[in-house]
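Continuing the batch. This is chain 6 of the set; chains 1 through 5 are on the previous pages. Same settings as before, nothing changed between runs. Recording input and output for traceability.
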Amino acid sequence: MPKIDVYDIKGKKVSDVELAESVFGIEPNETIVHSVLVNYLANQRQGTQSTKTRAEVRGGGRKPWRQKGTGRARQGSIRAPQWVKGGIALGPKPRSYKYTVNKKERRLAIKSLLSSKVLENELTVVDKLELSEIKTKTMVKALADLKVEGKTLIVLADKNENVLMSSRNIEGVKTILLNNINVFDLLKYNNLVLPLDTVKKIEEVYA
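Output for chain 6:
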C-alpha cells in the first residue's frame, strides 16, 4: 500500500496517509490511457465543418456552351467541381465524432494516471484546502508553500467557491471538481493536488 505525506496549507507535514493499492498502486496501463484519451479528444470535436456541393453553390444552371463543334471539352455546368467557384466534390459535412468506450476502461485509465502520479512523486495531498476569502495572492502563496511548481491540477471533492475563484487567474493552474476528472487534464498537468477528502472519495468511487 503506497504511503504519502499529508501537508497543511502552509506546507508543513501534519501526518501521512496510506493510499488504496487498487487505485493509487496499480501498474499504469499506457494502452488503455491512450485509447481513452483519443476517445476524450474525439468527443470534444464540434464537427461543424461544411462545404457546398455543386447542387448548393449559386449559379451554373445553363450549359456554358454547346456539346459538340467548339473544340473544347464538353461541360454541363460552370459550377462543376473542376471549375473555379464550383462545388466541392466529397467535401466535409457536419457530423458527430462521438463514440463511447467501456466504463471499465475509463476507470482503469484514471487509476493508471493516479498511480503514475504517485510513482513519479507528482501527487501532493493537503489535509484541508480552504480559504477564508477569494484572493489569488493567498492561493499563489499556498501553492508556493506546498512547493508545487509548474502546471498544476487541483481536484476538489465538493464545490468551494473561494478556492475555485482564487485559482482561476493563476497561469498553469486549473481547479476542477472530482466528477469532472478526466485523462486529458491528468496528462496535461504535471502536478496533482488533492485535499484529503478528495482522496477518500476517489477511493470510494474507483476502488
